Amino acid sequence: MALQTRLAKMLGLVHPVIQAPMAGGMTTPELVAAVSNAGGLGSFAAATTSPAAIRTHIAAIRAKTDKPFAVNLFVLAPVEPNPSEVAFANALLARYRIELGMETNAAPPAKWAEDFEAQFEAVLDLAPPVFSSTFGAIGARKTAALKARGVLVVGTATNIAEAKLLEAQGVDAVVAQGAEAGGHRGTFVGRAEDSLIGTMALVPQVVDAINIPVIAAGGIMDGRGLAAALALGASAASMGTAFLRAEEAGTHPLHKDALGKIDDTATTVTRAVSGRHARGIRSRYMDEMAPHADEMPAYPVTNALTTTLRAEAAKQGNTGLMVMWAGQGAPMASVKPAAEIVEAASAQAEAILGARQEAK
Amino acid sequence: MALQTRLAKMLGLVHPVIQAPMAGGMTTPELVAAVSNAGGLGSFAAATTSPAAIRTHIAAIRAKTDKPFAVNLFVLAPVEPNPSEVAFANALLARYRIELGMETNAAPPAKWAEDFEAQFEAVLDLAPPVFSSTFGAIGARKTAALKARGVLVVGTATNIAEAKLLEAQGVDAVVAQGAEAGGHRGTFVGRAEDSLIGTMALVPQVVDAINIPVIAAGGIMDGRGLAAALALGASAASMGTAFLRAEEAGTHPLHKDALGKIDDTATTVTRAVSGRHARGIRSRYMDEMAPHADEMPAYPVTNALTTTLRAEAAKQGNTGLMVMWAGQGAPMASVKPAAEIVEAASAQAEAILGARQEAK
């Protein structure tokens, strides 16, 4: 069995391919199970999912696969935004609500985000084979609690300081998220602007800085990228955008369609959608909001305020106001069943590398 | 002989390692010749060098090596800046000139840049084994003239549109410059902001888009990066920052020193130094000028206006006002003779890849 990396052995994976968690309905139980059944590791992005729905979703995954899979959460503290920042954001968003025929004086959302502690308790109770976190470190105590239940714990880093912190808290592996990656930046130490480090430069630096397996993320779209990630010293590749057009992915049809039409320069990093830096297909909303992006309330407040707006835009097919997350490799995303994406990447990487990755 | 890629065969290289051109005195004849003598391809950055000095420099390289080497120029049209934009830039720069004890009402520079046509004529006449260009395409006629003299022609692209244009003009190979790369961005089609594409995502897209060899650049620091570049489909790696601390490099001692102290988040892309986007170690100058960076006159005007300022800052050891170009892999730059950097990278890449790269 080829490409048997250290992490693949720890997890019992046939292929060192992780389908990255992508919040927003993309990671259906069908997608997660298809990747895991193919010998990779599917990931359920549970960040914006309620504890009750997390239970249902994990049960649905377990009904479709007996292979390892991961559940991902955003690490969030409870927020109580200042009414003035909410009013400021709503004033900037009013033009879009009017354009979409929505109420501009709507009441604030019932909650700004799911309660992380309650989400975490649900995940701990359900003990999926792998837990991964983004936006922060869960701390040594929670890490130990997961490990005591047999859960393998993965953290996400965008720079070396974060990787070292995660290792010190006891995680089993670290995702090194390069600047190419689509969706939210995981940065939690330092400024997000300073941690847009390309995968080619970030991965070997993280590999040199810590002693646990590193998972490369950002711009990895096929077996060439997988082979490159392993060559850089990673133990696996986390591929997100590569699965956005997979048959099983819950990606909005207009989003899937746009991914097939864009060129290599189409994505940008914006703070205007959620209050956190994230990479997606450049849109009219992102361009128009660019002068105000840094003034919008921090995640999750802006995210909550734009949720209904984005949903309505998607319903109306208004792509200028939809959000379509994507990484810089997006034009390489293929329309295939997820299992074929996993198998093709692994076979191509094996052809490039041979079976030389056994020690990593 | 391992790692014998298509480009290595075309050039007669032992190792598919190109020492990237870095304008500013780094690419001494000693550095270029050391890389070429070791079996890689040294590059002389002649962009800011007069035709007469180009002749002297190439003669010095030829005295030290009989192996192939490259000469690089920036493709520039003559400029005649508007006096108001020069006055605006000088007003913003006055505080730094005062800080350094310099004249604030100095006459404009005798010339804004070396004359590209005269530089090109000198290079064509001297017919180095390889010519490479940055900041634009030299056109089919100049490309053909170089090829008729036996010169292999390389262009630099930061996106697919540029790569296709260069191929259509007849170049022999294209450098795909990823966002990690230090120094000036080569973008000449579209906005530089949109073409900060990470090496991991850019290289395979360029490889798929054109039919000539691709040279990967950006964040490649050692054999892991070289192997990754070849895995992505490149025929060679262009390594710049990796040679900044080489014994033979003409890098300013304070610049070499800073490279040994920075962390992974230390670089940024700025337009404030030269009027063109370029990546270097974040400095007080870059931070303070950030609000005005987009208003400064385009290259070469701002570059010419800051040249004496930067030189004086370097003389005084004022690192906050010096410019120290560097890529995102800078913390991995090693202090070694250039030949060792080439040989170590090639040997490590061969260990990772085996001799499987013969077809590329």
What is the number of strand segments of chain A?
A: 11
List low-confidence stretches of chain A.
Answer: 356-360
Q: What would CATH call the architecture of the largest domain in chain A?
A: Alpha-Beta Barrel
- Beta content of chain A comes to 5-15%
Order of SSEs of chain A, N→C? HEHEHEHHEHEHEEHEHEHEEHHH
- Going by helix content, strand content and strand pairing, the class of chain A is alpha/beta
How many helices of chain A? The count is 13
CATH topology description of the largest domain in chain A: TIM Barrel
The percentage helix of chain A is: 25-40%
| Most extensive protein-chain contact, per-chain counts | A-B, 48 and 48 residues
- Total domain units of chain A: 2
Quick one: overall form of chain A?
Answer: globular
Q: Identify the quaternary structure here.
A: homodimer
> Ends of chain A: how far apart?
15 Å
- What's the CATH H-level homologous superfamily of the largest domain in chain A? Aldolase class I
Strand order within the widest beta sheet of chain A: 1-9-8-6-5-4-3-2
Describe the structure.
The structure is a homodimer of 360-residue chains. Chain A has 2 domains: 6-76 and 113-252 and 329-353, Alpha-Beta Barrel (TIM Barrel); 80-111 and 267-325, no CATH class. In chain A, 39% of the residues lie in helices and 13% in strands. Chain A has helices spanning 6-11, 29-37, 51-64, 83-99, 116-126, 140-148, 160-168, 199-209, 223-231, 253-259, 284-289, 301-316, 338-353, and strands at residues 17-19, 42-45, 69-74, 130-134, 152-157, 173-177, 183-184, 214-217, 236-239, 267-270, 278-281. In chain A, strand 8 (214-217), helix 9 (223-231) and strand 9 form a beta-alpha-beta unit. In chain A, helix 2 (29-37) runs parallel beside helix 3 (51-64). Mean pLDDT of chain A is 96; it is low at 356-360. At the A-B interface, helix 8, helix 9 and helix 13 of A face helix 8, helix 9 and helix 13 of B.
